[in-house]
């Protein structure tokens, strides 16, 4: 995985990988600012900022922003996570300079027009209502609140009706001014364009962005207490969440937990949870186990929907599969097949160049480097069944798990 890297005088870093066999270039700004960096009164502000970036800059109105790349067959998008906000685009290689200039404009020159704030406020309230009406989405957000109770990691990225209803133009300017740090910004490019051409086209306007430093320090997470909560809702099916905090992005055991989680409830149909809950017993349509890393902690959560009268049986099966991984070592062939499956999934993911561009930016911000796939594959291949069992006993200990259940009224 060959990539190029340059740091500008203002601290912004440009990372690039050339892919000759495509017509496209994917690029984006990844900022180390997320929903966990909001105060309680600011809950939802970063996500609102993400929306407002498309609503007007010092030289463009909303229509001109939306039409700039769409009229060329390109795509412009953005997203917010607990620790990052990203503005990115995909475009034919001959139009890369237009995409890069537009991304720079919406990232650094947004004006947050007051009329547009009022319109977008309603859009976000509708988005929140849509998530509430979807229990499989709502339970994931509410489970975050349960596991990370009292910490910003537990707050909803969308915010609350109360906070979203109060944000003003000045709130955006004040927040960005206090959190923006040019040393925590990466411009990532993956596609059919040389590094020399990227620098020729973007270095001028990226270098003109004023250097900015922030005194803000992210509040760490430490205190976890397992909890169990049952909520009655107007739904036809029960939904369950089981999990706890896990290893951070800096923990050397994270790739081993990735492998273990893949065995338990990864995306493949042969995961242990899918084979047990769906194929053998028919209790669920879908079950997933998700492992998410953050800068100071992580999160492992298992989610599924089932009939109300099978909630207890399905939950016991989940705990039974976790217990097996704690008490029974994987056989040589089982371990080999699990490794090959995880490696194949990672290799396949590398073929998605838009996603790879975003991963490059995120990893550079988090770790200051990009882990090569070969090095990750090496760590996975070196994993022993004893190590997986040890991690299973750390992460799957039943007395450390939290439970959230939605039951039909």
UniProtKB/TrEMBL annotation:
<dbReference type="InterPro" id="IPR007863">
    <property type="entry name" value="Peptidase_M16_C"/>
</dbReference>
<dbReference type="InterPro" id="IPR050361">
    <property type="entry name" value="MPP/UQCRC_Complex"/>
</dbReference>
<dbReference type="InterPro" id="IPR011765">
    <property type="entry name" value="Pept_M16_N"/>
</dbReference>
<dbReference type="Pfam" id="PF05193">
    <property type="entry name" value="Peptidase_M16_C"/>
</dbReference>
<dbReference type="Pfam" id="PF00675">
    <property type="entry name" value="Peptidase_M16"/>
</dbReference>
<comment type="similarity">
    <text>Belongs to the peptidase M16 family.</text>
</comment>
<feature type="domain" description="Peptidase M16 C-terminal">
    <location>
        <begin position="166"/>
        <end position="341"/>
    </location>
</feature>
<dbReference type="InterPro" id="IPR011249">
    <property type="entry name" value="Metalloenz_LuxS/M16"/>
</dbReference>
<protein>
    <submittedName>
        <fullName>Peptidase M16</fullName>
    </submittedName>
</protein>
<feature type="domain" description="Peptidase M16 N-terminal">
    <location>
        <begin position="18"/>
        <end position="160"/>
    </location>
</feature>
């Amino acid at each position: 995985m060959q990539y190029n890297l340059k740091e500008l005088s203002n601290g912004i870093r440009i990372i690039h990988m050339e892919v000759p066999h495509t017509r496209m270039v994917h690029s984006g700004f990844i900022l180390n600012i997320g929903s966990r960096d909001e105060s309680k009164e600011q809950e939802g502000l970063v996500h609102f900022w993400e929306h407002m970036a498309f609503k007007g800059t010092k030289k463009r109105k909303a229509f001109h922003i939306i039409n700039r790349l769409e009229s060329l067959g390109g795509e412009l998008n953005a997203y917010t996570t607990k620790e990052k906000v990203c503005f990115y685009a995909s475009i034919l290689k001959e139009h890369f300079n237009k995409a890069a200039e537009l991304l720079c404009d919406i990232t650094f020159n947004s004006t947050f027009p007051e009329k547009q704030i009022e319109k977008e406020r309603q859009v976000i309230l509708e988005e929140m209502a849509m998530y509430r009406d979807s229990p499989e989405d709502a339970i994931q957000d509410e489970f975050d609140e349960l596991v990370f109770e009292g910490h910003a990691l537990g707050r909803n990225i969308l915010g609350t009706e109360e906070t979203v209803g109060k944000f003003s133009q000045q709130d955006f300017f004040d927040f960005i001014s206090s959190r923006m740090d040019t040393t925590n910004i990466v411009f990532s490019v993956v596609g059919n364009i040389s590094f020399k051409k990227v620098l020729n086209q973007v270095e001028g306007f990226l270098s003109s962005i004023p250097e900015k430093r922030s005194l803000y320090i992210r509040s760490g997470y430490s205190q976890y207490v397992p909890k169990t909560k049952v909520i009655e809702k107007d739904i036809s099916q029960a939904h369950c969440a089981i999990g706890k905090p896990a290893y951070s992005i800096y923990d050397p055991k994270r790739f081993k937990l990735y492998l273990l989680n893949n065995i338990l409830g990864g995306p493949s149909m042969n995961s242990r949870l899918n084979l047990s809950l769906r194929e053998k017993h028919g209790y669920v349509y879908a079950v997933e186990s998700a492992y998410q890393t953050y800068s100071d902690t992580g999160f492992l959560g298992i989610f599924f929907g089932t009939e109300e009268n099978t909630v207890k049986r399905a939950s016991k099966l989940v705990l039974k599969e976790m217990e097996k991984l704690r008490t029974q070592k994987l056989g040589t062939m089982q371990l080999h097949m699990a490794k090959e499956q995880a490696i194949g999934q990672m290799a396949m993911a590398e073929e998605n160049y838009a996603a790879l561009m975003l991963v490059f930016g995120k990893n550079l911000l988090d770790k200051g480097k990009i882990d090569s796939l070969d090095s990750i594959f090496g760590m996975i291949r070196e994993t022993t069944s004893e190590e997986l069992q040890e991690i299973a006993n750390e992460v799957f200990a039943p007395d450390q798990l939290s439970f959230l259940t939605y039951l039909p009224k």
